[in-house]
Amino acid sequence: MNIMIAGCGKVGRSLADRLTNAGHEVIVMDKDFDAITSVTSMIDVMGYQGDCTSINTQMEAGIKKTDLLIAVTDDDEKNMLACLIAKKTGSCHTIARIRSPQYTDEIKYLKDELGLSMSINPEMVAAEEMVRLIQIPSALEVDTFAKGKVSLIGLEIPEKSILDDLAIKSLNSKVGNGALICVADHGGEVVIPNGDYILHSGDKISVTLSMGEINGFLNKIGIKAKKIKNVMLAGGGTIGYYLAKRLLELRINVKIIEKNKKRCEELADLLPKAMIICGDATDKRLLLQESVDQMDAVCSLMHSDETNILLSLYLSKTNPEIKVITKVHRNSYEDIVNELPVGNKISTKDITADYIARYVRSMQNSMGSEVEALYRIMDGKVEALELLVGEDFNFTGVELKDLRLIDNTLICRINRHGSIIRPGGRDTLERGDSVVIVTTNKNINGINDIIKG
Fold it and tell me: Tens digits of per-residue pLDDT, 72-94?
């Protein structure tokens, strides 16, 4: 596909890298020449300097030959206008990043009127992801499929767990029939395990469960399910606002520490049920005064990655029982942060790239097959996807034990008209099903791609 990306910031760079690696032809556009060269010098893409809201600029950059325009500048209005021009001029698909809370309730109208193929609010999506992590404090990752009916949860097997030295084929007899261990990471070696795989304490695993089975499973494997009641947010920016709003709806007590006085006044009006503290969240005395050590969860959401990391390190040392979530943007910190006790890491850049990559894959499919959900798990080494079984799938009715799946791929759940099936060898895939898979293979674009040719 020919893809044009308007905006060469962190998100634009991440998208260019991801889409180029997937085999697409990518052009990046920005008014800032240095921003363009910072991308083109590192990634094999074409660069074009100009204003994405100019018809002439888009025409010169090749919008007529473009299949998809992705507008991810820092200006919502500019993104929407760029998409409208591309839609009218080039008749291509369009995706706009729209972040401002003022558009939250109007997004469906805007999408319809502007002819957007997709819109994404990274801060809102990040907030929803943090809510899931807060609701399951012991989880390393929480992703959902089948309209929330199936969860994929990342966990670390605790010491003296029933799972220690257990073969996966014995899992059902120990913890029941609901859970399915899909991925295992032992000492950095990530595998899609078979029944003979032996689990060990300290291993990181990904497990598929229905929401109602989570607490029971955690208790059986030695992880105490804890209910979150009090949450502190260090930083009252857009993510902090969306997160606080959702937590308050769940009747969780929220305390926000924000340095900017004007922003504190805005938050006090927007979130009357939250406690707003005007101060520096890196001030140890203020943190102790506000009982940070008594919080069930703390989210480091300030502008600076370094500040977020340092605060999270302090919290992990102060009280290891606190659920810590850290916002990190810079790619250069990823390897370092993965080795530090900073809790769950959230990046709006990565979230945006994941959502858009899912849509791009769907565009490549034919006859109704599509990627309904896409997540990268285990530090990006594994992909978890929800795939729709379309009219072009030629193996309906074939028992799973007879399907020749590509290597390192596992079917985890089947959603058949809202009924969730934990698949066994005698089960089949039928048209209209959505199927949750995990795989170490990249660029799966549809259900046919998981079958060996």
Answer: 999 999 999 999 999 988 889 99
CA distance 43 to 14: 10
- Quote the pTM value: 0.83
**Tokens 């014995």 appear where?**
170
Burial class of 278 by CB neighbour count within 10 A (0 to 12, 13 to 18, 19+): middle
List C-alpha distances in Å: 258 to 3, 136, 267: 39, 26, 9
Number of Cα atoms under 13 Å in the Cβ half of residue 443? 8
Q: In what order do the strands lie in the sheet with 297-300?
A: 275-278, 253-258, 230-234, 297-300, 323-327, 344-346
**Whole-angstrom Cα Rg for the chain:** 23
Distances (CA, A) of 354 to 11, 223, 421, 424: 11, 30, 26, 30
Q: Which uninterrupted H or E stretch holds 327?
A: strand 323-327
Distance (Å, rounded) from C-alpha 265 to C-alpha 268? 5
Q: Could you write out the DSSP letters of every residue in 179-219?
A: -EEEEEEETTEEE---TTPBP-TT-EEEEEEEGGGHHHHHH
Residue 301: other Cβ atoms inside 10 A = 30
Which alpha helices (DSSP H) does 231-387 contain, by range? 238-249, 261-270, 284-289, 305-318, 334-338, 348-364
